[in-house]
Input
Amino acid sequence: MANYQWYPGHMTKAKRMMQEDIKLIDLIIELVDARIPLSSRNPDIDELGKNKSRIILLNKSDLADTRKNKTWMEYFSDRGFHVLEINAKTGAGIKSIQGVVQEACKEKIARDRKRGIINRPVRAMVAGIPNVGKSTFINSFAGKACTKTGNKPGVTKGKQWIRLNKGIELLDTPGILWPKFDDQSVGLRLAMIGSMNDEIVHLDELACELIDFLRAEYAGMLENRYEIEINDEQSAYDVIKSVCISKKCFLKGEELDIMKSSAMIVDDFRNGRIGKITLEMP
Output
C-alpha cells in the first residue's frame, strides 16, 4: 500500500497559535468528517481543550451511513462531548447548534450569573483538520448577518470576533490541526474522502482499496451503481475493468481506460453516488 503522508512545515506554528487562542475561549466546536470521525480528528485537541466545553459536529453526515452516525454520536457522547450531525454546505443541522452551545456552556453561564455577570456571550473557536469544512461551516453558521467585533479592550489585539447574536461570539480564525498519521490506515481514509492532494495519490490504488472495503462492508452497492456482476474470484482490479466496460471507459479502440474508471469510482464515493458509506467504526 502506498505511504500517505503530509508534512506541512507550519504545523507547529498553527498549534502554538491555537494554544494562545484557546486561553480566550469557553467552547471548542470541532468539525470532523462523519465518514471517518476518528481519522479526521487530531488527538492533541483533547489535551489542548481540556477544561473547555466541547461540541463535535459530524459534518457531511448525509454522505455517511445513517446507522453508523448514531453509533458515533453515542461514542462521543459517552466521552463527554455534545454531538450533532450537520452538513455545512447545505445548512442541515445548523439551526440546532445554538441550543447545544447553551447546553454545553450552562455551567459557565451559571458561574457568570453567580458573579453578577449577565449576558456575557459564550466565546467559541471552530477547530479541525484541513478540508473538513471549517470555513464553510463558519459562513453557514454566521450567515450573512454577522458582524466582526474587532478589537475591544481585553480582547487580544488583532483577533477578530464574529458576533453571531447576543449569546455567542466566534473567533474568526479557525483552529487548524493536522491529522496524526501514526497508523497508515488513517492516511488511506483521508485520501479516500479527498482530504489530500490527489496528485500525490495513485487513484487506481485508491479505487482498489475502496472496492475491497465496499465488497466486505457494503455488499451489492458497487453492482447496483455500475450495473456489473462481481464474483468472489475477481480481484479489485478486475472490478475496475468491469466498470470500464459497463461505463464505456476506453482509451483508443478496445483499450480499457483504467485511470478514468478509477477516478470515477473514487469521485462517486466522495459525492455519495455509490451510497451512504462510513469507512470506520469506533
